[in-house]
Amino acid sequence: MSSSPVVEFKENTVVVVFGASGDLAKKKTFPALFGLFREGYLSPTTKIIGYARSQLTNESLRERLKPFLKTTTPESKLLVDDFLNMCSYISSPYDTAEGYQKLESEINEFDTLKQNKESHRLYYLALPPSAFITVASKLKEFNHPGSKGIVRLIVEKPFGHDLPSAQALQSQLSPLFTEDELFRIDHYLGKEMVKNLIPFRFANEFLTGCWNNQYITSIQISFKEPFGTEGRGGYFDSIGIIRDVMQNHLFQVLTLLMMENPKKFDSESIRDEKVQVLKSIKPFDPKNVLVGQYTKSLDGTKPGYLDDDTVKPGSKCVTFACMSLEVDNDRWRGVPVILRAGKALNEGKVEIRVQFKETNGLFDSSINRNELVIRIQPDEAMYMKMNTKVPGVTNKVAVTELDLTYKSRYHDFYIPEAYESLIRDCLKDDHSNFVRDDELDISWKLFTPLLNYLEGENAPTPLPYAYGSRGPAELNEYLEKNGYKHQNRAVYQWPITTPDVLKESKI
């Protein structure tokens, strides 16, 4: 719990969650709203309306949500019923007028009761993209307050399947809601360590001199999942790992990591600089991409991707990808940026790894390069691998780290879930951590030719890798070829048993 909660949002806000009976709303959207309420960042005067086709009552919606509302203290358990009493439900199709008319009646009744001078509305579309335009059109027709209030519309990824579909979606949304009213949510931008990238980059002067191609030799952004498609292969088969996490999550992390100092600390200045990074990325070389598809585990206990009955036979769907790109500007020219993502790997982890050039002069090449590692999940942390002398009479040099592990440093702090953070930003009208239309356009322009190559008639066959492995056997060779230097697997400076002996631990 935060020590002194402050309600930051406008009172008497109406939040409408479309798709309220679905898994996304149940597991993410409503729990995020409760998290904000629990911590004192959502006014108890807020009205929350669930809207979906399922035949539910107010009470059945509340019972459905209750197991997913996270309580952190005995006091917070007492808030669950208060929050649920803020929630009501409308059952109606998405493509007919009646439900939207009922919704408008409820909002107007609420505004009148609260004596609101202006209506303050947030519409959250926890829906598949196929429903975006239908719902947005009806909201514009029946539920837009016009000059009498403020409206914000949150839409979930995916924002298109490729460049033409993304442009078509945008061309249909833009006449309905302005870019100021529209919030495209990528939940990775709400993660604590991702939101920390801008303060880390621009509030620490010691980074300024070395954050460039004169000192940095490679950057790697990795996304690893320890599970496969688990019966959802039919859905994943039309998406693949590149659309699922690389074009959106990892690209957003890349722009924040590599952008120039924004002119002002406001959302549009920040997004302007992100766009400049995207514009500087060279077109991808489709032949310099390592792609894979997982097979059954070595012990035979976990099935391969093609063993999933929902996957079409012989599918070449990519479940692992590793690709190198270059940001062609004065700061980063010549520095390979490696994006790496996969399912059914040996661990679950998302991290950034910035590798510095080797030390020249006094020490030989056996000395490890410095690496800055930013672990986004799990167990948020930042640490800098550095070389230091082992204590005592020895002259040995070993790797240790300057370590900021959040669990130990900030164990008493409230660290919001990603969706909590982003809904809070939306209610504050802060677009910094949401995707702008031109970001989306440039990103798809870069990825669409690669996707066409990987999914075309002459698509390469993905390399096999065992469920639970690090990926295809060719991975290490690919990383070396594209600029990542595998370190001397010596030792960390960890607990010392004698003055001259280190307890060894793999890096």
List the SSEs and their pairings.
Blueprint: E1 14-18, H1 23-38, E2 47-52, H2 58-65, H3 74-77, H4 79-84, E3 87-91, H5 97-113, E4 119-125, H6 132-142, E5 149-156, H7 163-173, E6 182-185, H8 192-195, H9 197-202, H10 205-208, E7 216-224, H11 233-236, H12 240-258, H13 267-280, E8 289-295, E9 320-326, E10 336-342, E11 349-356, E12 371-377, E13 381-389, E14 397-405, H14 406-409, H15 418-427, H16 437-455, E15 463-466, H17 475-481, E16 496-498, E17 501-502
Parallel strand pairs: 1-2, 1-4, 2-3, 4-5, 5-6, 7-10, 8-15
Antiparallel strand pairs: 7-11, 8-9, 9-10, 11-12, 12-13, 13-14, 16-17
Keywords: Carbohydrate metabolism, Glucose metabolism, NADP, Oxidoreductase
Enzyme class: oxidoreductase
GO molecular function: glucose-6-phosphate dehydrogenase activity; NADP binding
Task: Give a description of the structure.
The chain has 507 residues and is of the alpha/beta class. It is 32% helix and 21% strand. The protein has helices at residues 23-38, 58-65, 74-77, 79-84, 97-113, 132-142, 163-173, 192-195, 197-202, 205-208, 233-236, 240-258, 267-280, 406-409, 418-427, 437-455, 475-481, and strands at residues 14-18, 47-52, 87-91, 119-125, 149-156, 182-185, 216-224, 289-295, 320-326, 336-342, 349-356, 371-377, 381-389, 397-405, 463-466, 496-498, 501-502. Strand 12 (371-377) and strand 13 form a beta hairpin. The relative contact order is 0.13. Keywords: Carbohydrate metabolism, Glucose metabolism, NADP, Oxidoreductase.
